[in-house]
């Protein structure tokens, strides 16, 4: 084998793993509503009309992960939720919020 052929030999290189270290943030918003009407023959004259709730909500997330090794990851997370979803009940002329 000549010197020119020896230079063409490619040595395999092991691929490095992905580094999961870093800061991340996230936000979310949503809305929800649900209303049920329930009646029963079991108790005559009693019906539950308007069991439900509605409102909006939001979420914020911030965290940091540190990759100690290819098999070990440390992380911290702060997650906050806020919302205005309220429930209500209307039963036989009586109501509660």
Would you mind describing this structure in some detail?
The chain is mostly beta strands. It has one domain. Helix content is 4%, strand content 64%. The protein is built from one helix and five strands. The chain has one helix spanning 3-6; strands spanning 22-39, 47-69, 72-83, 86-91, 94-96. Strands 1, 2, 3, 4 and 5 form a five-stranded antiparallel sheet that branches. Strand 4 and strand 5 form a beta hairpin. The longest helix has 4 residues, at 3-6. The chain is elongated, with a radius of gyration of 30 Å. The mean pLDDT is 80.
Question: Which labels suit this protein?
Answer:
single chain, 97 residues, mainly beta, 5-stranded antiparallel beta sheet, 1 helix, 64% strand
Q: What proportion of the residues is helical, as a percent range?
A: under 10%
Order of helices and strands: HEEEEE
**Structural class by SSE content:** mainly beta
Number of helices: 1
Q: Uncertain regions: pLDDT < 50 for 5+ in a row?
A: none
Radius of gyration, taken over Cα atoms and rounded to an integer in Å: 30 Å
Q: Tally of extended strands?
A: 5
The rough form would be described as elongated
Estimate the strand proportion. Answer: over 45%
Quaternary assembly:
single chain
Largest sheet: 5 strands, antiparallel
The average pLDDT score comes to 80
* Tally of discrete structural domains: 1
Distance between the termini: 89 Å
